[in-house]
Design brief:
This protein is α+β, with helices and mostly antiparallel strands and about 550 residues long. The protein has helices spanning about 20-35, 60-65, 70-75, 135-140, 160-165, 210-220, 270-290, 300-320, 325-335, 345-360, 365-370, 440-455, 470-475, 500-510, 530-535; strands at about 10-20, 40, 90-95, 105-115, 120-130, 145-160, 175, 180-185, 190-200, 230-245, 255, 260-265, 425-430, 460-465, 480-485, 490-495. It has three domains: about 10-145 and about 245-320, FAD/NAD(P)-binding domain, CATH 3.50.50; about 150-240, D-Amino Acid Oxidase, Chain A, domain 2, CATH 3.30.9; about 365-510, 3-Layer(aba) Sandwich (Glutaredoxin). This is FAD-binding domain-containing protein.
């Protein structure tokens, strides 16, 4: 390519998204749903050839349902096909100058398209969804706290009809071996992925992938041989345990999502599921800013809300990471004898069973997944809201306490969820009876007044009045609930504020023009650094031999 003779074409865009993976594409899709244009830049011309995610949690499915694609997603087999085409493919390099891009009033990014044309894009906001080695993050001067764990794993993605037919206990998700890694049963039926640790100096090219799979499946015994129809992919990867020091640049022009701002082991499924949330959080805020009704505190609230939640998930991820340790200790202590039909073997197996019974399921962290409590300057919280409900990582307590995710409750028709009633961006949900009493009339009047003032402020509020839905009202616990685009509670009350100025004040807070009275940014209390050190030295991942 002759860069010297290449002409520059300058473009203007409100928002540029760097990275066409799931987080980048979902961010673009949400912006489109909100009526906000953007430019998406991606350097690869094909999608990945092997799975990058194997657990879509309930919260992600809720978000897909709200987008109207929940049922379609459930019916999918595998990922997007390799014949999927994009109109424009770019290779990017983000303003590699001497000054951090976050200091300027707009962002300049430079791209080279597939025909060799250099394009300069000036944008108000730049979204970094470009993965763990994010160039956007580095150019914005944002550091990552943490590092890759010093362990390599070798994966083999393969197809085997014989293995599919020989499952003695039916379909499974993960099968762990105390000696030689683990196997994932993929969705396609006869597709599997085997993982096992390798030494740092091991020659990957010398590994026979079939023999590798046989060793993993053999567990503590001899290699388990069967017919492998096709080796589809082999690769190495490293476990990462890191989080960005901030999600939004100092100047408020660059925002990060997905692996660009958090990296973690797959244990618990907190990687892409968190990225799916990031995409919506970024999109509704940027749309509000571009349309002019979002204030100066809005984008920073993304960092204030999502980063503490991700720290919480990293801590939980570490707990999951330690789960296989007793298996590996048993193997070190007893070797193949742990499967023997004698007193020692039975004792070891009983100990492992007790361990599994005590920890329960790894993927039923309902508190972590469904009960995120956001605390930021744009959450309208007053003394009238009372004490915050107790929180548990394993269980979910339905609540509309400000900052909480609104509860999913089926209405009387047993088909429609409260989530299905929400508008695309902001929704005022009100409850009333069907009678013509003054109380019922007041609900309708207050709702109409609130929406009218929101329209005056330029805030796109949709209203829903649920009639005689006593069960839903009992669970939601409030007559009026203002719900954000991400289905979290921005404000609630027994009635709408009595004055127009009171309504305007609520709207100014939740859209980031004013800090909620009494709000104080608290220092994040996290054991991340302590956990990181324990994680690095836990020995919870064994390194195998070729």
């Amino acid at each position: 390519m002759d860069h010297a003779n290449m002409t520059r074409v300058v473009h203007q865009a409100e928002i540029v998204i760097v990275g066409g993976g799931p987080v980048g594409m979902l961010t673009a899709l949400h912006l489109s749903r909100f009526g906000t244009s953007c430019l998406l830049a991606e350097r690869n011309v094909e999608t990945t050839r092997w799975p990058k995610m194997d657990w879509t949690n309930p919260r992600s499915m809720e978000l897909f349902r709200m987008m109207g694609v929940g049922d379609e997603y459930r019916n999918l087999v595998g990922a997007v096909g390799p014949d999927f085409q994009m109109d424009s493919i770019f290779y990017y390099s983000c303003n590699p100058g001497s000054e951090p891009i976050a200091r300027w009033g707009e962002v300049e990014s430079v791209y080279v398209d597939t025909e060799g044309q250099e394009r300069v894009v000036h944008s108000r906001y730049l979204v970094g969804a470009d993965g763990g080695s994010s160039g956007v993050r580095k150019n914005a001067g944002i550091k990552m706290l943490g590092a890759p764990i010093p362990v390599r794993l070798f994966l083999v993605h393969f197809r085997s009809q014989e293995l599919a037919e020989k499952r003695p206990f039916g379909r499974f998700w993960h099968m762990f071996s105390p000696a030689h890694g683990y196997v994932i049963d993929q969705e396609e039926g006869d597709i599997f992925t085997a993982h096992m640790g390798v030494d740092e100096d091991q020659d990957i090219k010398a590994i026979d992938p079939r023999e590798w799979v046989y060793r993993v499946l053999g567990g503590v015994g001899e290699p388990y041989r069967f017919k492998i129809d096709e080796i589809q992919v082999t690769s190495t990867w490293r476990i990462n345990f890191a989080i960005a020091e901030r999600y939004v640049s100092t100047g408020g022009r660059v925002v990060l999502g997905g692996d660009a701002c958090h990296r973690n082991p797959p244990h618990g499924g907190y990687g892409l599921n968190s990225g799916i949330e990031d995409a919506l959080h970024i999109a509704w805020r940027l749309s509000a800013l571009v349309k002019g009704y979002g204030g100066p505190y809005l984008l920073q609230s993304y960092d204030s809300e999502q980063r503490p939640i991700m720290l919480q998930r990293l801590e939980r991820c570490f707990e999951h990471f330690k789960v296989p340790a007793p298996f590996q200790k048993a193997f070190v202590d007893h070797g193949s004898g742990m499967g023997a039909d004698d007193e020692v073997g039975r004792s070891v197996r009983a100990t492992i069973k007790a361990h599994l019974d005590a920890i329960g399921s790894e993927v039923l962290d309902y508190g972590i997944e469904l009960d995120s409590r956001y605390k930021s300057s744009i959450i309208h919280l007053t003394a009238a809201d009372g004490p915050e409900p107790a929180w548990s990582k394993k269980s979910y307590t339905p609540s509309t306490f400000p900052g909480s995710r609104v509860p999913h409750v089926f209405l009387k028709n047993r088909k429609t969820s409260t989530l299905d009633t929400l508008g695309m961006q902001w929704t005022l949900v009100a409850f009333t009876g069907s009678d013509s009493s003054e109380d019922s009339h007041a609900v309708w009047t207050q709702t109409k007044t609130f929406v009218a003032i929101a329209v005056e402020q330029g805030v796109p509020v949709h209203s829903v009045i649920l009639i005689d839905e006593d069960r839903a009202r009992g669970i939601w616990g409030s007559d009026f609930v203002l719900v954000r685009a991400d289905a979290h509670v921005a404000w609630r009350g027994a009635r709408v504020p009595d004055t127009k100025e009171g309504i305007r004040q609520v709207l100014r807070v939740v859209t980031g023009w004013e800090v909620c009275e009494g709000y104080v940014q608290k220092e994040i209390q996290s054991d991340f650094e302590l956990l990181q050190g324990e994680f690095l030295h836990s020995g919870a991942i064994g390194v195998g031999e070729a």
